[in-house]
TrEMBL record:
Keyword Isomerase listed: yes
Keywords: Carbohydrate metabolism, Isomerase
Lineage: Bacteria, Bacillati, Actinomycetota, Actinomycetes, Micrococcales
Keyword Iron: no
Protein name: Putative N-acetylmannosamine-6-phosphate 2-epimerase
Catalytic activity, reaction form: an N-acyl-D-glucosamine 6-phosphate = an N-acyl-D-mannosamine 6-phosphate
Pfam families: NanE (PF04131)
InterPro entries: Aldolase_TIM, NanE, RibuloseP-bd_barrel
Length: 226
């Protein structure tokens, strides 16, 4: 399997997703860039970031492979939902463009295959398909994706939402696919990350447990209160 070099650099490592939810104090490109810099110091092999300003500033500050996306709209498909969004994410500095890789209809009317074909033809971008099931992943491969993430497992009707990572799906994908499978979603502990790699993941993306203080604080508050 021949891999594009930014993707190859992620093999066996931890990618830190540096994102803040709308309305939060940390929803600021400078803050997210600082979080990304700290993740690099800690040994991350890549960064995942949302929004053009965040992507651009992290690209300037951090010399790691950068997975970029743009969350837009209130439809089911909101992770880099259109070709226009994907082109903009690449132009902002992302090495790998992450987009919704499910089989659902996209807001601009293009198929996933047409979106990926045109994106690659015009930019040469590496594409990560955020999937919710094995069928999504297989369709994403046919559409031309370079790697597949389990990002949307449990967030579409195809899979139940497990409390931790969907290890069963990671294993199925790793066995069935000839492209890298990137584990993402509800990886809340170092043990979860190790289990994802053991299940066959090419790399692991962790966001909330590292970069979302409100959620981590809530976990501890809930534990203290029993």
């Amino acid at each position: 399997m021949t891999l594009p070099s930014p993707l190859d650099a992620l093999a066996g490592g931890l990618v830190v997703s540096c994102q803040a939810y709308p309305g939060e104090p940390m929803r600021n490109p400078e803050t997210m860039a600082q979080v990304a810099q700290s993740a690099r110091i800690g040994g991350a092999v890549g960064i995942r970031a949302q929004g053009l300003a965040d992507i651009a500033l992290i690209r300037e500050r951090v010399d790691l492979p950068l997975i970029g996306l743009w969350k837009a709209g209130d439809a089911d498909v909101f992770i880099t939902p259109t070709l226009r969004h994907a082109m903009s994410v690449h132009a902002a500095g992302a090495d790998i463009v992450a987009l919704d890789g499910t089989r659902r209809a996209r807001p601009d009317g293009l198929s996933l295959a047409e979106t990926i074909r045109r994106l690659k033809a015009e930019t040469g971008a590496i594409v990560m398909a955020d999937a919710g099931s094995l069928d999504d992943a297989l369709a994403a491969i046919d559409a031309g994706a370079d790697c597949v993430g389990t990002t949307l497992a449990g967030y579409t009707p195809d899979r139940p939402r497990s409390p931790g990572p969907d290890l069963e799906l990671i294993g199925w994908m790793a066995d069935a696919l000839e492209i890298p499978v990137i584990a993402e979603g509800r990886i809340h502990t170092p043990a979860h990350a190790a289990e994802a790699i053991a299940a066959g993941a090419f790399a692991v993306v962790v966001g909330t447990a590292i970069t979302h203080p409100a959620s981590v604080t809530r976990w501890f508050v809930d534990a203290v209160h029993g």
